[in-house]
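ping. complex inputs:
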Amino acid sequence: MDNSLDLTKFNRQSTKGVLILFLQNLYRIIRIFWVVIIPIIAGKQPKKMQIILIGSITLLIFLLIKSILTYLNYTFKIEGNSFILKHGILRKKYVSIPFERIQNINFKQNFIQQIINVTQVDVETAGAKSIEISIKALKREKAEAIKSAIFTGKQISSNTTNTQEIKDIKTPILKVSFIGLLKESITENHFRSFLLIIAFLISMYEQVKNVFTDFSLKNSTGIDLEETTNTTSGIIVIIILATIGSFSISFFRIVFKHFDLTLYYKNQVLEITQGLFDKKNQVLKKEKIQSIVISTNPLKTLFGISSIYFKQVSGAKKNNKKALPTRIIGCNSTHIKTIKEFLFTNLDFSNSKISKPNKYYLVQMGIKNASIISALNLMLFLLQDYQLFYLNIGVLPILSILIYRKYQKSYFKLNEELLVIGSGKISTDTMYFAYYRLQSIELKQTFFQRKRNLFDVVLYNATEKIKLPCVPKKEAEKLYDFLLYQTEISTKKWM
Amino acid sequence: MFENAQINTDNLPKLQTVQFEQIHRDYIKVIFFNILLIFLVLLVATIVNFHFNAKVKELAKPLYVYIVLVMFFLFQSVYYYASFFKRKYALRQQDITYKKGLFFKSTLTIPFNRIQHIEIDEGLFSRIFSLASINIYTAGANNLDLAIKGIPKKKAAEIKEFITATIHG
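pong. complex structure:
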């Protein structure tokens, strides 16, 4: 592997790739056949064990040979302006991808890849159903070499930027320490996991109680356990457990996903590295980012941190319908400012008016939620579960507050370049959306909105649909015409 | 050269002033064919069920089921008939707009420079009346973004030509 950095000749993966391929194949087989495998292993019959042993050894050898062959037949190179890949053991495939079709190159490292120190390189292309090329095991230098070769090639071929300008300097923007991760996990929105855990614990509690009652019925001399299991202390225990549970869930999730988060600026792109077991390196290109959302909540504001979501078009989008936005955590106001200034040119909103939705939006949400709640109540009534009616006392005020908060937090404002959309209930989410990212626009009006001359303005971009609720007619029409005009005169690449 | 002249937002082209065109009247027949087809399928299914499955008869009286079915058919026909006249479209130099909806109105505009591709689609019934539908795709979150159904075939082809020429011109 001496001349390993010459990308114009056919290259192989790192020899360690055999191990990765082997483990992947093994994992795949176990995943498919675990239903069969577990009973075989569990039913220990010495005679059959021999057959099983021989069988599994044959299988392992077969997998090893397959992995080696896959490894030997998997070669790639860079030729002119395209990336070329040859692979396949029996059926040979020759894939050639021109640079301009390559959207993104992402580095990944799962646990094993980290141990043996290789990097997985995923090459994403536009419009592809899934990630087209995934090279499982490369040495870091080689991975970097491929990436820079492709990006440099791209920039030269599109001749938009002067090649002189391409520098390989990484300018760090943000690095999140362990304390930062801790802060983030404390300030997460715990409501959902909290409720889930409570539901889980309550069902467990009921079951345990049932077991105890059965037990006490059989054991007539024993103490009546149902009497002794105090309900209030039970509730307190459940709440404490749920609180600890939801905190630790979000803590582990944050640490696994965002460990050692570093964001830096390099060659006109943002690069993110993060993850504990699954180390990921992601490239965020300015022209691919459709919008950003800056999200914070009261607790986070206290610590002065927010998250930024980057919504980016990805080739893999069609495969899993909801392509998750890339999230970075632990940004303070300076980080946010740097990122905003990197992405947008005009951030001056001093002349812009904040537009709130019409009050009718409150009515609309109220009616919607009231009908759901009454349907649920009706169900309880029909099921004759009158005890659960008391839940209304807790649910109704919370729901009303949430609805009001949602109304309070939704607004939009615009300047010459950007549309800023506020939303959120507990959290405060602020979306920044450049006009020319628009794909299509829709005015919607229900029967009830017509009486009040209100419209919902729906904006579609390449990643999502954004609703501006209950905008008065005049304003909605003006916005409609303005956004269309801005999109139609734009000659910028929008995705 | 980079220019950034101020825009007078009052002088922008307004959608309100655009003349909308109705889709072809014959298309209502296509809609009725479709509704009728679904009705007939449901009807046959119900008849078969009542005839051959004694248990179903115990669950509901056949008469009621037929009444519900017919009511549903009538309601659907009236609704589609009424909303048919709300289906309108308009072409401008830079974009295409489609309006629809009786109780839930919608107006959607797609700028030509955001269109990925266009196709003309002729359904089985539409072909009898030589009508076609124009399907417009953007790279947006929802894949098929706009389908304008019930446009005379020739006109549909012209519209497609016009848009394609604008995109590539």
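Chain B is about 45% helix and 25% strand.
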